[in-house]
Each structure stands twice: as structure tokens, then as C-alpha cells.
Amino acid sequence: MSSVTDHEKATASELEKTLPGQNTPTSSGGPGGIDNEWTDEEEKTLRNRMDWYIVPLVTVLYLLCFLDRANVGNARIQGMQEDLWLTGFRFNWALTIFYIPYLLVEVPSNILLKWVGAKVFIPFLVFAFGFCSLCTSFVQTHTHLYIARAFLGLFEGGTMPGIAFFLSNFYRRGELMFRIGIFISASSMSGAFGGLLATGLARIPQWGISSTPIHSWRNIFFFEGLATMAIAVVCYFYMYTSPETCNFLTPRQKYIAMERLHRDSRENAAEKTQMVHVKRGIFNINNLLCALGFFFNNVSVQSLALFMPTILKALGWTSTKAQLLTVPPYVLAAAWSIFVSWLSDRYKKRGIFAIGHSICAIVGYAILISTDKAGVKYMAVFFCALGCYPLGPIFLSWGINSTIPPFPCSLSPTQLTNCTDAAGPTIRAVSSAYIVSIGTFGAILATWTYIPSDAPNYITGHSMNLGAQACAALIALVGVFYCRWENNKRARGDRDQRIQGMSEVEARKLGYRHPEFRYIE
């Protein structure tokens, strides 16, 4: 195991001495005489400090991830289509090839992240996909583009689930949705930045050597990739693995940060990864529903990100105007996603917000199908963006919430260390990666929603997205009823037989199947 894990073991041993009821001689049994308890004001100050330091950092990193992924759509209408002979379905194949390695690495990447640590692994991923984006500026044929996109997918695949798992190491279950919503809102913000950057970068005069000149669309890949690599290097010095390693927190705040997570879920941070953790992360009915919901919503999110410039240009506008008109829907969708994430955490509800936003997207796609007026179609794009983009963080956080058992427990950290099957960080790592992995299949489907033969109205593509959003709404509805049904059975004691005759260590191994666990609806 890494040195970070060894340090966490030492911290667990230290915390055992400080827990109430664990041989604490005085009320000041915490590290360095720190009191075991803390005020609400102290916790609020801690949370605000983490919010201002951690959340902006991961939001910028995911913005770069989505920017380097979706800039191919901006480059397409700036001349890449003609320069690389992307006739027929070649552009769609370039999009599809990206998602094949992306899909395959998500779960292994998160397991590796847990072992290596976020401080090294996440900046490495960002630097690597930035380098791949930069290299795309030198491709000369569609085959070269396929290779570049495959390597880009290889390194981007672990970024989104990795950041989601990273945040779950700092925030309680009821705090997670808002923070995930903020960083995933970077996907829509990248669309806004992408349109503006593409417009400006494409106007840079040709430069470079005569054999490989950099111009128009090539500038987009080169400078965005270079900026990503530079930010990744800086990010290394500001990334941390867990609250106890954060030098922006005082010793008192480090203690509170670690202890509040420990009391919230009683996880064993030093657990060894076993197959039982992988099974627990995958074979959870709520997780399966969230993964399916993420899949159908990802069809719409990824198709918007990849094809919005193409859709708007098909309405009769110039390339420059189409690039600039992509900005307002993305900006509004980003702001709305953050607000909805805050509301969802405030009211501790997930499903009702998912249903409402799917209906909003359905309205948008229905308008796109039913009219030929450019202005009305552009208005419909706003409905689609406002409906689709908040759904990603809703389904992802809903799934992660089902892997953080919030029921009380009297086990000491030493007992938890010996309880290797207990619900812990590995299950969270697997769950977040698994949900995103299933969602990636939706992204693959998205690359084929808008094909050249369907231009300029793209009725087939809009219809596919309408159907996908209808399925997402249905899945969210099923999820709400399932969570409510299961919670009611546990409240009536219908699941109590699961722990009859078990010690507390054995009961902990049940994880989300424990009778005291309650799903968030």
C-alpha cells in the first residue's frame, strides 16, 4: 500500500483514542488536547474552507477535461472536416473511438486512484490528456485523428469518476450532491468557453514550420492542450488525498474533518480492495438504476457537447456566429446545474429533480422536431441544455449516496481495520466509476445521433434524444418508488432478520443491506 494509506492507518489508531466511549480519560482526548466535540460554527468554517479550496480546483480540472474532449466539434466547422477528409461517417467514427478506451479504464482507474492517491494520479491524468490534445494539432489524416482520440479517451476515462470519489473523501453524504453538481457544471461551462476560445484561436495567423503549419482548427487543439498541461503541473502542488494531508487546514480542522466523516459512515480508510467491494459497488439496485439513468442522459449531454456547433450552423448561420451562439445555452445550464444541486442537497431529494429535468429536455427536443424556424429551434436548445446538464450530477450523487452507510455504529477504528468487508471507500470508488462507465455507453450512442444524411433538420437525432430523456424520467420514477418501498420495509422491521445473531462487526459487512440504512429518495 502507499505511504498515504500507512499514514491513514496511524491516524485511525490515533482517532481510536479520541472517540467518545473509547477509553477517553477527559473531554480533551483529541490530538494535542483537542476536544472531541465541535460546534456547528466550527464545522461550517471548515466546510467553507474546503469549498473555496477544493471545489474550484476540481471544477477547473473537469472543465479542461470536457474542453479537450468536445473541442473536436468546434474544430470540425473551422476546417478540420475538409482538411482531414472527414467524409461520410468518419467524423462519427472519430467520436466513437474516443469512448472505447474511455469506457474500459474507468473502474480500474478509480481502484488505482485509491491506491496511488489523488495528489499524484489526478494531475497525471490531466497532464496526459492535455498532451494528447496538443498532439491532435499535428494529425494529417483521419486515421491519425482516430489514434489521437483513442489515447485521449484512455486518459480522460478516469477523470470524472476519480474526481467524484475524491470529493467523497472530504464531504458527508448530504453535502456531496452540491459539490458534484458544481464540478460537473464545468461540462456546460466548457461548452461556453469552447465556443469563445475556438472563435479566437482559429483566427491566429498560420505559424510553425513549413512541413507542419499550425493554423485555424489546429490552433484550437494546440493551445488548449498546452494550457491543460501547464495547469496540471500547477495542480500537483495544490492537490491533496484526504483532509488530514491538507496544509490549508489547522490541526483542529483536520481532526474535525476526519472525525465527522468517520462518525458519518464509520468507514475503514485503510481497507484492502477485495472482490466483495467490487460486487457491493455494482450489484446495488439503486446503483443499477442510477447507472441506467446516467446512460440515457449521457446520450443527450454528449450529443449536445459534440454536435451543438453543427446543429446551429445547419440553421443557416456562419461558423463564427454558430460558435458564439453555443455560449448562452451553456452558461445558463452551468448556473442552473449549480442551483439545482444546492436545492437537491437542501431538501435531500434526488428523484423528483431528475424527473422534472428530463421533462424539460423532452419539451426542448419536441420543439426541435416540430418546427423549422431557426429562432424557435435555438430557444429549444436552451430547454435541452437546462434539462440535460443537471441530470448527470443528480444520478451520480444518488448512486454514491447509496454506498455511504450513515447509520450509527460503536465499532472502534481498530475493529473497522479488521472488518475488511465493511462498506468503505473502495465501494464508493467502484460505484462512481461503474455509474460513469455505464453512462459511457450512452456517449458512444451519442456519437451516432447526428449523421450527415440527416442534415439539416436532424429529426432522427432529436427523436433519439427525446426517447432517451423519456427513459431517464421513467428510471428516475422507478428509483423513487423503489427507495420509498425499501425504506418503508426497513422502518417496519421487515429487514431486521438480516442481522439476527450477528455481531456488530458482522452486521457492518452488510453495508447498504443493513436494516438501519436508508436510501435517499
Please summarize what this structure is.
The protein is mainly α and 521 residues long. The protein contains 21 helices and no strands.
Description:
It is a single chain. This protein is an all-alpha fold. The chain has a single domain, classed as MFS general substrate transporter like domains (Growth Hormone, Chain: A, Up-down Bundle), CATH 1.20.1250.20. 70% of the residues lie in helices and 0% in strands. It is built from 21 helices and no strands. The protein has helices at residues 3-16, 40-83, 90-116, 118-136, 142-156, 159-168, 176-184, 186-201, 216-236, 251-265, 275-282, 285-313, 319-325, 327-347, 351-370, 374-388, 391-401, 413-418, 425-446, 459-491, 504-508. It starts with a helix and ends in a 13-residue tail after the last helix.
